[in-house]
């Protein structure tokens, strides 16, 4: 019987595809595109996104107003 991999949801969104980031034992993986990194979630999510070596100011936040046009639980905001 194959081992079941258990991952926890994070409050972060993948900078590659905007999918939900999962975490397990210091490894972070996008539930949508499968990109994975070890270390810190900011290496995969928008909170760590840089432009010309400086943090771009984006933050992953819980969607305060989910609706059909924007149903995502986690969205991007500036300066949050």
Structure overview:
With 80 residues, this protein is mainly β. The chain has one domain (8-78). It has no helices and 8 strands. The protein has strands at 8-13, 20-24, 27-30, 36-38, 50-51, 54-55, 58-62, 74-78. The strands form 3 sheets. The protein has a 4-stranded antiparallel sheet with strand order 1-2-3-4, with no helix packed on it. Strands 5-6 form a two-stranded antiparallel sheet. The chain is globular.
Q: Could you write a compact summary of the structure shown?
A:
The chain has no helices and 8 strands.
Output the keywords.
mainly beta, two-stranded antiparallel ribbon, 8 strands, globular
Write the layout of secondary structure elements.
Elements: E1 8-13, E2 20-24, E3 27-30, E4 36-38, E5 50-51, E6 54-55, E7 58-62, E8 74-78
Strand order of the largest sheet: 1-2-3-4
| Helical segment count | 0
Which outline best applies? globular
Mean pLDDT: 93
* Largest beta-sheet characterization: 4 strands, antiparallel
Task: Give the termini distance in whole angstroms.
Answer: 44 Å
Along the chain, the helix and strand elements come as EEEEEEEE
Share of β-strand residues: 35-45%
Gyration radius, in Å: 13 Å
Number of separate strands: 8
| Class based on secondary structure composition and strand pairing | mainly beta
Give start-end ranges of low-pLDDT stretches.
Answer: none
Q: Approximately how much helix is present in the residues?
A: under 10%
**Number of structural units classed as domains:** 1
């Amino acid at each position: 019987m194959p081992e079941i991999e258990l991952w926890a949801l994070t409050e972060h969104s993948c900078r590659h595809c905007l999918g939900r980031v999962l975490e397990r034992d210091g490894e972070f993986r996008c539930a949508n595109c499968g990109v994975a990194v070890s270390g810190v979630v900011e290496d995969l999510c928008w909170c760590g996104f840089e432009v010309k070596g400086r943090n771009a100011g984006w933050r992953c936040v819980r969607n305060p107003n989910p609706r059909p046009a924007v149903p995502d639980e986690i969205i991007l905001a500036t300066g949050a």
